[in-house]
Amino acid sequence: MFLRLLFVLLIALNIAVGAWLLLGQNDTHKHFATDPGVPKLRMLSELPPATSVARAASVPAPPEPSTSAAAPSSAPAASVPGSKPAPSESNALSYACMALGPFATQEDLRIARNALTPQVQRMRARQEQITQPRGWWIHLPPSASHAAALAQARQLGAHNIQDYFVVGSGDNQNTVSLGLFKDPANARKRRDEIVAAGFPAQMSERTETVPEYWLDLVPVDSGHFDWRSKIHDPAIGSHSTGCF
Q1: Bias category Low complexity: which stretches (predicted)?
Q2: Do domains 92-131+210-240 and 132-207 have the same CATH topology?
Q3: Segments making up each domain of the chain, as ranges
Q4: In the chain, which end has fewer C-beta atoms inside a 10 angstrom radius, N or C?
């Protein structure tokens, strides 16, 4: 009987001690997680609704961008001590595309290209076909037949006119040629002599198609590009051209 009573008392004592440890120690240990005077951190979900709203309202809204800061300022920027001033427009390099020529031969073009290479950004060679005069031709109008052309030649000889021949083929077949001249003044003089002798002499310009060579280039600095110091041919000129 005594042992049974002792057993019941021990059980009751254990229950009491367990209840005291479970319920009576929360206030004792709740301040040990942080240093004294430091409030305990809590999640927003643990706070009451009113506290969450108040805390959210206390967070400052991001400032709106200022229109004056966004607008470009026309005033010059203040110089920073020790910084280098920005280069003025007058000191900036200038670029322009130009063409040099015409060169008489491809060899002349190659020499000029090699001489100017260190002073240019890029360049290209091109060839053009041009028509140039070869002289002036004095002749009679073409005859209907070769026999008629020979008859005209005999009449010229009868008037003591020399230096003529009959063209026997080509585009000017059956034409009596009276000379080819480089000087137009000499050509006109010969024509007037034949006309004064009673023959309908004509003066025609002779032309031929020949190639000429050009060098298009872009100088590193066109404001200080002295190509004459490298190319001494007075026949070579320059002009601006479209960039490539």
Answers
A1: 66-86
A2: yes
A3: 92-131+210-240, 132-207
A4: N
The residue with tokens 């009113």 is 50
Cβ-contact 110, 216 below 8 angstroms: no
Structural domain 132-207, CATH architecture? 2-Layer Sandwich (3.30)
Taking the alpha carbons at both ends of the chain, their separation in whole angstroms is 120
* DSSP state string for 164-218: -EEE-SSTTTTEEEEEEESSHHHHHHHHHHHHHTT---EEEEEEEEEEEEEEEEE
Q: Can you tell me the mean pLDDT for 162-180?
A: 92
* Residue 18, amino acid: G
What is the distance between the alpha carbons of residues 167 and 94, in angstroms, rounded to a whole number?
A: 60
| Alpha carbon 71 to its chain's center | 31
pLDDT in tens, 15-65: 877 777 766 555 544 444 455 555 665 655 555 554 444 454 444 555 554
Q: Residues 230, 123: contact at Cβ < 8 Å?
A: no
Asked whether the beta carbons of 176 and 137 are under 8 A apart, the reply is no
Separation CA 99–CA 57 (nearest Å): 73
Architecture per CATH, 92-131+210-240: 2-Layer Sandwich (3.30)
Gyration radius of the chain's alpha carbons: 54
Range list of H helices, the chain? 2-23, 26-29, 49-58, 67-70, 106-116, 146-158, 184-196
Q: Residue 232: helix, strand or coil by DSSP?
A: coil
